[in-house]
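SAMPLE LOG
Freezer: B-3
Tube label: C17
Construct: single chain, 328 aa
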Amino acid sequence: MRGESGASLVKIVGWIFVCAVVAAGGYFSANYVRHDAEKLTLTEDVRRRAGGDFVRLADGVTHFELAGAENPRTVVLVHGFSVPYYLWDQNFEPLAKAGFRVVRYDLYGRGFSDRPDVRYDAELFDRQLTALLDALKIPGPVDIVGASLGGPIVITFADRHPERVRTISLLDPGYLTGLTLPWKLRAPVVGEYVMCTQIAPGLPEGQKEDFLHPEERYPDYFAKYGEQMQYKGFRRAILGDAAGLSSAGQPRGVRSTGAKRETGAAGVGEARPASAVRGEQGRAGSVAGGGIPCDRRRSACAVLRESRDGESNAGGVSEEALRGGDGA
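STRUCTURE (predicted):
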């Protein structure tokens, strides 16, 4: 009798456990579907309506825009962590009107560029930039500008291809060096769930923290940000960046670039002017961009100061041009 009662109790507990698992699975699945904004796939029709141009590179299609006269003085604008090339809307035309040839592009995983299922790290973005300039037949040297996490990409490019760089300009450059992602973002399946339901939904609104007067000065900025989130692969790229760009080797690229600038090491030939700019009050409102302030991340600013020659904007792209010519 006791044996039958014990067996019945085990069955009851088993059924309760199964029902709890099914209920939990249903809840988490419904929650994921409710928050999942990635319903669309990037197609040729979508890209035709996007404007700009497209080129197929080794890792995927890249969305870019090229403007200005046929001038060997070319400025390359590299955006940051998650905002695509519209970050440079207030700078792109003023630079072209100032006589530069200007290139801006969407990093893989952002805007209308492909979201390849690869590791998102310095290697990927260096390949993308190098291949894009090759496809556009721009051998260099170029004036290269990076905002936020575009800073590490710019520094990596300058360190590996010094002959292709004339000047370096960094706007609120930020590094994720030393960052250890929480276990729930590193864990398979769980990381995607947390990214979808907790982190990604707040990204558009979170952009406003980087501006002094977001609604007044950038009314269309945040709607554009949300548009890119509809296309499959965006979250994977953002999560991949947080892991791939936090490698400890990246600051060595900054120091190496600075050392080459000072010493004129082999392959460089002469010092490369470099400048770093941050927004007023630790925000990007003063340079019409959406960067990560130097005091929020381990940034290139301090390391560049150690190796720079003491001149500000020594031959680089002027801060006025980067402001969009309006004193923003």
